[in-house]
Design brief:
Blueprint lengths: L1 H18 L43 E2 L9 H16 L4 E7 L6 H21 L7 E7 L10 H7 L1 E7 L2
Length: 168
Amino acid sequence: MNKYFTVIAMCLILALGFGCTKKQTVKQEEPIKQPEVAIQTPPVATPPAEAQPVVPKIEFKTIFFAFDSYSLNEEGKALLNQAGGLLRSYPDVALRLEGHCDERGTAEYNLALGEKRANAVREYLENLGVSRSRLSTVSFGKEKPAVAGNDEASWAKNRRVEIVPAAK
């Protein structure tokens, strides 16, 4: 029996001796760094803007008239010749012709005279080849004076047709 215990003891000693081996440390590998790659996002395509009509900035001169008249003078005709040339270059531009009078005369008379002045300018432009559909007229009579005053210089500035670009 003593032999039996000796064999068992020897086995235990051997088992314990081999069981207590050194711990092997596993060297952890460092993570492999990935090269930095710049991520380029494709440019965002913006939808094309709708084509807007080019509206030129045109300033038209005011046409002045003599007292109680709707006849165009030579200076007015020269200004309208320039305006007609511009209008032929820009066929999408429409105009509003605003007739005005000085403060003398009744409201009804001045409204009629302002309309005749605006129509005289429109007819002249039509003779230059500008389509009637691009020209509208309105009379303000004496309601919108350019200059306040009760003298000939003020009245002369109020007898006019203003040419204003308008929506077509």
